[in-house]
Amino acid sequence: MNILVVEDNKHEMNNIVRVLQSISKEFNIYKALTGKECFKIMENIDAHLFILDIELPDMSGIKLAEKIRNISKYELTYIIFITTHVYLQLEAFKKIHCYDFLEKPYKKEELIKIIKRLSKGISSQKQKNKLERQQVSFEMKDFIIKVYIDEILFVEAQRRNCIIHTKEKSYTIKSMTIKKIIEILPKEYFMRTHRSYIVNLKNIQQVEKDEKNSWTIYFEGYSIPAYVSNSYKSEFSESL
Questions:
Q1: In this structure, which topology does domain 2-132 adopt according to CATH?
Q2: What is the chain's pLDDT, residue by residue, as a tens digit (240 residues)?
């Protein structure tokens, strides 16, 4: 987790850094004394959290935060303000949508509590993003097909082969059973809905139900549907 601290008071900067280091040795802490230094550091890292003093030598912390928010990848990044200017608190929340605002002098425990909460949320989000862009490999006789898991809509068995339907195209995996493929795919995303179908639960747009016949599953922007047979209806309903 990359944390960028912008504070012109070196004593206060050291205090913040010590608190962060006491929480986790895995934090990457970057220090800037001015807004200009902050942007120079941002050229080389992706920050996950900003801790900003309101009063800086070259610009206000509010102005710095505005400029950070104007960078698309930082529109929703966590920002914490630390300052003596408590009257700016409303502006910080309304204009910058900061996560929190600590008034100097603050208790060390206050900052620890906030950072621990944010760290947990950031770690969960990073793990989620990593999983969403995870790839799965299908080894063929002469080559390997790699597909992003979140792009797979469903898998369809056709005789001795399986077809991987994705948002952009389909891939034919020869001589591989649907039973083998369900073992490869992560269970939190995929489930078997039919003897011939495996579906990515995260990509379902609509399910058309029929009491007697198989249910039909539709996916956004894709004309070919998948199906849920009677024997899988109960388990499928519980997974939605």
A1: Rossmann fold (3.40.50)
A2: 899 999 999 999 999 999 999 999 889 999 999 999 999 999 888 899 999 998 899 998 889 999 999 898 898 889 998 887 766 666 666 667 777 878 888 888 999 999 998 888 777 666 666 556 788 898 887 888 999 998 999 999 998 999 999 988 999 999 899 999 999 999 989 999 999 999 999 999 999 998 889 999 999 889 999 999 999 999 999 988
Return the structure tokens found at 90.
């409303």
Fold agreement between 2-132 and 135-239 = no
Which CATH number applies to 135-239? 2.40.50.1020
Residue owning tokens 């004309």: 223
Contact predicate 74/66, CB 8 Å: no
Burial readout 80-115 (b: 16 or more C-beta within 10 A, e: otherwise): bbbbebeebbeebeeebebbbbbeeeeeeeebeebb
What residue ranges do the domains of the chain occupy?
Answer: 2-132, 135-239
Enclosing H/E stretch for 77: none
DSSP tag of 187:
T
Burial (CB count within 10 angstroms: exposed 0-12, middle 13-18, buried 19+), residue 232: buried
